[in-house]
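Re: the 292-residue chain
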Amino acid sequence: MSVGNAFNDFLRGCGYAFRGIKGFWVHPSLWHYAVIPFLCVKALCSLLLYVLMQKFVIPFGAWINEILSGWGWEGLAGTVEVIIHWTFIIMMLMVFTAVSNMLFELFGAIFFAKMVRRFEHMIYRRPLVPDISFGEDIWNAITCGIYATITLLFTIVLFIISFFFPVVAQIVTIVLIGYRYGISYCSESGFNRKLSLWSLQRQFRGAHKLTLIGFGVAVFLLLMIPLISIIFIPGFVIGGTMLVNEECFPPEPFGGVRQLPPGTAPQLPPAYGQQQLGQIPFGEMSRNGTLR
C-alpha cells in the first residue's frame, strides 16, 4: 500500500464522521431516538450542577468573603467570591461536557440500537427487526459501557504520559484512542450482525483499519469541542453504521449484503442510467407510480 493510498483511506474515514452527522440531521425520523436520552442526561447534569453550587460553591465563597471582610478587605472579598463562582462554573462545564457525553452514550445505547436498525433499513435495506432480544440489547449496552470506561482510563494514562513525551505521546494518544472510538461507534451495526466487539475489530484489516482510524480520530477531535460536542454523538453512531455497511459489508448492486475479503475495495452499485433494461434503482418510482 502506497503512502498516498494510505492517506486517502485515512481521509475517507474522517469523512464518515461528517457524513454521519449530516445523515442524522437530514433524517428527522431518527431524531426522537436521541431526544429522550439527551433530555435525561441534561436534566441529571443540571441537577448535579445546581446541588454543587448550592451546597458547596456558594457556602465556600461566602466563607472566603467573611474571612477577607474580617481582615478589612471588603472590596477584595466581593471580587474573590465572584471569581470563585465563575471559576467553578467554567471548570464544571468542562467536566460535565466529558461526563455528559459518556452518560449520553450509556443511556442512549438501547435507543441508538433501534436508530441504527431504522437507518440500515432505510438506506441499506437490512431487516428492520433483526433477531436480537431486549436482553441482548441490554448486554450490548453494558459491553459498550465497559469498553468506553476502559477507553477513558487509557485516555487518562496517556494524558499523564504525554507530559513526559511531548508531541509524540499526543500523536500516539490521538491514534490509539481514535481507534477505540471508531470501534465504539461502529458497534451497534456490528451487534445487528451478531458480532462481538472483538469480532468487529477483526473486520477492519488492511485499508479498512486506516479508514477506521481516520473515522475515530475525527470523532476524537470533534468530541473535544466543549458544550456542543454532545449533539454530534448520534451522528457519530450513524457515521459508524455507514462505515460498517460500506467498507466491511457493502451492498450488492441489486440487493443483499456480502462480506469482502480483508483489504478488498468495495464495488459500488452502477450509476443511475447504467442498470440493465427493466431494472429500477431501489427507492425510485416506476412509470406506473409503484415504489420499487
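The two ends are 40 Å apart (CA to CA).
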